[in-house]
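Reminder to self: keep the SMILES exactly as supplied, no canonicalising. Ligand is zinc ion.
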Amino acid sequence: MLHLEDAVQRLTRAKRVVYLCGAGLSVASGIRAYRSGPNAVWGEYVLEWGTRAKFLEDPGAWWRTFWLGAHGELLRQDGIASNAGHRALARLVRRGLDDLVVTQNIDGLHRAAAHPEAQLIEIHGRHDRFICAADGGCPGIDEPVSQVDLTDVRPGHFPHCPKCSAPLRPLVLLFDEYYDGHEAYQAHRARRALNDADVVVFVGTSFSVGITSTAVRAAEVSGAALINVNLEPAPFPGVLQLTGSAEAVLPELARRVVG
Ligand SMILES: [Zn+2]
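Structure tokens returned for the bound complex:
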């Protein structure tokens, strides 16, 4: 496979690699993609419900209809498992301390695959942390909460901030919010890493979110090489395409690059 050999060469020579991951990486773990595939919930209600404005209208209805409705598989008791793609990425970034995974996935599966914490940015947040939604920020100590009781959320009934009693919400980026909205997203660090990268590897992303545009613009300036691991080609030229699923392509890449 000619392109794979080319990708191996570029990764081997690179000083700093950023792997920018999207929903396609977690499909093999049973996580539904918002935007593509037969189970996509995109267009059903995600765009309408996945906003801070909708949350504030009725937090209980939002938790029940949007959060449990669109993310139920993340909350299953038996849990979900990382796949060979997540594990290969963890191996790949251990090559160099400056290499980084920036993931759009909120499912926590990079951490489940023992990915080095210092080399992971969850740019859209994480499903298992919750923050106060008080307007202008919590007047108490604003530490994310790791446990909320979602067994009985419904209109008018929802979890509250233990400090100030405002509604609690997940620590995830909503469609009407900005990457700089919470320090946990590490947006500044992600942009800096993309500016400094020699190689950016897109993994299972639909190129429809802000951070992928940021990566492409940064590469236009820096001359970084772009590699796309996906079933579909990138929607613009100049990208080294590795066609296949993340869980098939990444282990082969890791075997060739890391050994
Ligand atoms: Zn609060």
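Points to follow up:
The longest strand covers residues 125-132.
Strands lie at 17-21, 100-103, 120-122, 125-132, 168-172, 199-203, 225-230, 240-243.
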